[in-house]
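Ticket #4471: structure output looks truncated?

Reporter: J.K.
Steps to reproduce: submitted the chain below (355 residues) through the standard prediction queue, then opened the result file.
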Amino acid sequence: MNDDSLIEDRLLYSPITELRRSDNYEDFLAKQHEWIECLRGDDPNSINNQVTNMIWDAGAYRMVNEARSHAERNEQGDLKQNGMVHCLLDKCFFESQMAAVRRQMDTYGLTGERGTYSLNDLLDDMIRNMSLLTRGNYFTAEKRKWDTKLVREMRERWRLERVGKGAVEVPEECDFVLDEERHQIMDMLCDVPPDQRSAEDTVREEVLQNLKSRLNKECDLIKKQVNQYLAHCATPESRRRPGQEEAKATIGHMWEAHKVICEVMNFVSIYLLTGNVAYQFLPISPFDPLKYFDEPLIPSVSMPEIREAWKNYRSEIESWEGYGPDELLREIGTQSDDIGLNSITANPSQIEEQS
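Returned output as attached by the reporter:
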């Protein structure tokens, strides 16, 4: 079969299955673009960039935890690891990870002066615009074939007419599998049987509300702890308020929150936004992430310099303890000449004489 006849076949078997664009199709496209930018745009604060960094850091910490189980012990049975360094690793990991989870719970909205990129904000905005989430809008935007039954019949005709003519690529116009799969997904999302499909079928609000419920259930405890100890230093009284009981999230809570965030994000991307884009939450690194993992932080011969650096640091911090009335009055005097405060000295005996 030459190229010309193949082109003729493609035209002959190309089904006319395009839908008439709905009245709100342009609104759908605008919102879809906004939602995709929020979810996986190039902005450093897009949800995808947030989650990728969160998962990568969690992977690094898991390797540290695994390494601890293989660490050598001294004669007393204690791990030969620096307590100060590992306490810092634990503290920074938990604080940064809890803050990362907490950000997905923001509800400031996607637009405006206080707009934020978060899964909660994204789901809320989609709920507010439920009327745009129709089968017709999705199929039009994704350039899907609507009448898959017709496409199936034409594919069968095409197959029968080519029996015995050798292997030939099936024309794209006769491929219906992905389009039928999309129909089936929309059947479930809209709660509509296959024989009652309509371009006006709309995604049920319960779908998005359930995603929000999953997110809130697994992340609420972490949100409370961040609000009480990281974003704010809540007083004992405020932590005892009804509904604000003191939160104590564990590493288990963290892993579950990670899992739900990734699952909700992936579901929204595949089934509610683009129809086919899944995520790779842990990126493939262009370098070996475990290179030099088995090497000590410094050689033993450098320990004297490290001890001297710690000594200097202590001296610097202790120097801050000397700030008192002398320094305060000196600052007042140099900054307030025009009101006469510079006549006050930091000499206690002179202050007594003036009084």
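Triage note (M.O.): checked the attachment and the full token line is present. The CA atoms of residues 303 and 309 lie 10 Å apart.
Status: closed, working as intended.
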